[in-house]
Design brief:
The complex is a heterodimer of chains A (291) and B (520). Chain A has 291 residues and is mainly alpha-helical. Helices cover 78% and strands 0% of the residues of chain A. Chain B is mainly alpha-helical. In chain B, 19% of the residues are buried. The mean pLDDT of chain B is 86. Classes of the chains: A mainly alpha (291), B mainly alpha (520). At the A-B interface, helix 6, helix 7 and helix 12 of A face strand 2, helix 2, strand 4 and helix 6 of B.
Chain lengths: 291, 520
């Protein structure tokens, strides 16, 4: 009997017999295979529908797709509930909710598109439902890509790991240390600090260049320490080296700030729109029953 | 440093940055839900307001078709809360002046050109109008273009090209039932010779005259199509035995005139010189189509042989028709009774005139019933049953009767069949494919008549121009192609092959816009 921690470890352990791609993008082959089968079944059903029935939202087939999509959408929403009730163990493991959220959400979009026959709806409400469904699932998939890509990028490109919420505090700490360091330095270093280094240390800075490459981004932002170093006496060089370390760490923190901002920011294009979509979906069901 | 160690839990990175003194809680994400909630409230408010306090255009699934565009401002014209679109609301306009069954109902669909009331079933659980006519799919959407799967829910055939059953007459190899001794090959060749026609199909059109709208052909009529060549002044009956104590026979014109039976007014207008008497036998020349002397004698002989023929006596030919043609039998019988009544008008007696008034009232009632297209009518009352033959007539006597009937109807039998002392009714119009619509005009511009109507070898006969070797084809009513011929053009990627290409659901879709109905 494996403990919960051991079970979690199974899911997170790399599978030696699987490819790197599979290990990175597919947490559970079982869920992935189930999703593939579900998609295949849906497409086969739709082809049969197109061959032997009418492709329309109000046809029995179309209503079936719509009902299935709505049920999946409700199921997918339970991931948010689970995230807020993590302490309730009886609700099961969040991992399962997450897997259902990802695969069920994608399947929801497929069924929604089947519901409208892969056509753009004519009505305003239905057009918004169609557009928001695509938006929500696309932003969710973007989130998955970011969750897989950015941690890898950070783990290979920078030496410092920081908590996103501590970045302002650590930036202040570095700036204070740097200011204390240059107080006792000669004029050239102070002038260099004022002109070239202080703006870098002023606050956490969002630099999109880090999305293209961390090392390149770091080099591009580093002030020209090398030119000044050659003109300084030995004791001032040591201070300059220490200042360069501080700046290097600050730039790495900026990389974290930039990249982790995307990790958190995508939720703002996913969650609020999902809430609107849920409301519109409920209203759509009401109008179908009402009219 | 000692103080720093006291202030901090530890350090990390090569810069010895301080570890957080306490657990760092992630920043709250409630803002996301707040923004989402605000958005949801706004859009729900907008759509709800539009749905319940405005014209509902935002919640509509799409623009109404042009036919119903005027109702776009008021959803309740068609929609009832939590009841969908009921067919009753459609009927407000479309069945405004409908009959009992309703032009747009399933019942009328079952009766469509069949008049078979046994096919009508209760309307419960049948799809509503909107089930086939999908609205809210655009202003220019053709809502009458019903998708095949609506039909296939009941008629589970599949597509026209793969699942449509073969036409009955072809599948069952039904014999031609035109009831006319007619060789098409002979007639085509003779028409071509006489009219000097090169094109074979012009010979076809010589008799098959198009209807004014060009979709079909007028029924063949003796007076219009046959009279030129058939039953000319030289035609005569053979010598027919006159009825006497020795045996059965026909009645002469004088005898019939003397009897003054109902419907004998013709005897006063018939030229006596048309009859030749040879002591015990009589012949008539010329013989007309529907010759009253022949038909009257035939009716009289039939009454003797089949005494319980009932309403058949009011007909000029047999009552053996398709049930859907039964109305024509009643109309013919009423016309005969009208003739009888007309003859009584000249009688001045008070009693006769009183009875005549009653008869006319009764005929009015019958006419009113006949005007109801869905009133069930019984065709069996016009049939002469072989089993009802008078059993008191011996076999020998029966043969004598049949001999007389055969003599009397000799001129008729050139084209007609005579059975049970009745001239078998000719089917003047084809009775196949009755539930499909076919537009000859739309097809003739793309193909030739004989490309499809090829069961009778008219082209071969025309090529050899042989009139000696011809065979009766009973008017060739079933000289129709099998479904395979239709499928060569009506297939995917070519001509339309949907159900509604050929079939209508509503029997008379012109009724809902018939202005005359509004004026009545």
């Amino acid at each position: 009997m494996k403990t919960a921690v051991q079970k979690t470890a199974i899911y997170q352990t790399k599978r030696p017999d699987a490819s790197r791609w599979s290990n990175k993008w597919v947490q559970s082959p079982l869920w992935f295979m189930g999703f593939g089968i579900a998609v295949a079944v849906c497409l086969v059903v739709f082809v049969l529908n197109a061959l032997f029935g009418r492709v329309h939202p109000s046809s029995p087939w179309g209503l079936g797709y719509g009902i299935a999509a709505a049920v999946l959408f409700v199921g997918v929403f339970f991931y948010g509930v689970k995230r807020r009730t993590m302490q309730v163990r009886a609700l099961g493991r969040a991992w399962y909710y997450l897997q259902f959220h990802v695969y069920g959400g994608t399947l929801f979009l497929l069924l929604a598109l089947m519901h409208v026959g892969f056509r753009v709806p004519h009505g305003v409400l239905t057009w918004w439902l169609w557009a928001l469904s695509i938006w929500v699932v696309a932003s969710g998939l973007l989130g998955i890509v970011l969750q897989k890509w950015i941690p890898t990028l950070l783990s290979t490109g920078v030496t410092t790991e920081v908590n996103y919420d501590r970045i302002p505090e650590l930036t202040d700490e570095i700036r204070e240390r740097a200011e204390k360091l240059v107080e006792t330095s000669d004029y050239a270093v102070r002038d260099f600090y004022r002109k070239d280094v202080a703006p870098v240390l002023a606050a956490p800075q969002f630099r999109p260049i880090y999305y293209l490459g961390i090392s390149g981004g770091l080099k591009g932002q580093t002030p020209p320490f090398r030119h000044l170093r050659a003109m300084l006496p030995t004791e001032e060089r040591a201070k300059l080296n220490e200042l360069e370390d501080l700046v290097g760490t600050k730039l790495e923190i900026d990389a974290h700030y930039t990249l982790q901002k995307a990790l958190r920011g995508w939720l703002y294009v996913h969650v609020p729109v999902s809430v609107v979509l849920a409301a519109l979906l409920g209203f759509h069901i009401f109008t179908v029953l009402y009219y | 440093m000692q103080r720093d160690r006291f202030r901090h839990k530890g350090f990390f990175s090569r810069l010895q940055l301080p570890v957080a003194k306490k657990y760092v809680y992630p920043s709250s994400r409630n803002a996301m839900f707040f923004v989402g909630g605000i958005g949801a409230v706004l859009v729900l408010g907008l759509f709800s307001f539009n749905a319940f306090f405005q014209h509902g255009a935002l919640v509509s699934n799409g623009p109404l078709s042009s036919n119903h565009a005027a109702f776009g401002g008021d959803c309740s014209t068609c929609h009832t809360a939590f009841q969908n679109v009921t067919s009753d609301k459609c009927s407000v306009c479309h069945e405004k002046f409908g009959d009992e069954v309703g032009v747009h109902t399933f019942a009328s669909h079952y009766l469509y050109r069949s008049d078979d009331f046994t096919r009508v079933v209760p309307a419960a659980n049948e799809p509503a109008c909107f089930g086939c006519h999908t609205e809210h799919v655009g202003r220019d959407a053709p809502i009458t273009a019903v998708a095949d799967d609506n039909c296939l829910q009941c008629h589970g055939f599949g597509s026209f090209n793969t699942g449509h059953p073969e036409f009955d007459f072809a599948a069952d190899s039904l014999l031609d039932d035109g009831n006319l001794k007619f060789p098409h090959t002979l007639h085509v060749n003779q028409v071509r010779d006489r009219k000097d026609l090169v094109d074979i199909e012009q010979a076809c059109l010589y008799c098959h005259n198009a209807t004014p709208d060009g979709t079909g052909f007028q029924p063949i009529s003796f007076d219009r199509n046959c009279d030129t060549c058939h039953l000319t002044t030289s035609d005569a009956t053979p010598w027919v035995t006159v009825a006497s104590a020795e045996g059965p026979g026909v009645l002469t014109l004088e005898t019939l005139r003397a009897q003054q039976r109902p419907g004998s007014l013709w005897t006063y207008y018939t030229n006596p010189n048309e009859f030749q008497d040879r002591g015990g036998a009589v012949r008539k020349s010329p013989v007309y189509h529907r010759d009253p002397w022949v038909l009257e004698n035939l009716r009289r002989l039939r009454q003797i042989l089949y005494p319980s023929t009932g309403l058949a006596d009011l007909l000029r030919a047999s009552g053996d028709v398709d049930p859907r043609d039964v109305r024509s039998l009643y109309e013919e019988a009423v016309a005969t009774l009208d003739t009888y009544a007309e003859e009584l008008r000249s009688s001045p007696e008070r009693e006769v005139q009183q009875e005549l008034a009653e008869v006319e009232d009764l005929l009015d009632v019958v006419r009113r019933r006949l005007r109801d297209p869905y009133a069930p009518l019984d065709e069996t009352r016009f049939l002469v049953s072989p089993a009802a033959r008078d059993t008191s007539i011996s076999v020998e006597e029966g043969r004598a009767f049949e001999r007389v009937i055969d003599q009397l109807t000799q001129p008729c039998q050139k084209c007609h069949y005579v059975e049970e002392a009745t001239i078998v009714r000719v089917k003047a119009d084809q009775g196949n494919l009755i539930r499909a619509e076919f537009n000859h005009g739309a097809h003739i511009i793309q193909t030739r008549c004989l490309d499809c109507h090829s069961a009778i070898p008219i082209r071969q006969a025309a090529a050899t121009n042989t009139t000696a070797e011809w065979a009766e084809d009973n008017a060739g009513i079933q000289n129709l192609p099998s479904i395979a011929k239709c499928q060569t053009c009506h297939t995917d990627g070519k001509a339309s092959n949907t159900c509604v290409t050929c079939h209508l659901f509503h029997p008379d879709k012109s009724q809902h816009s018939n202005l005359l109905q509004y004026l009545e």
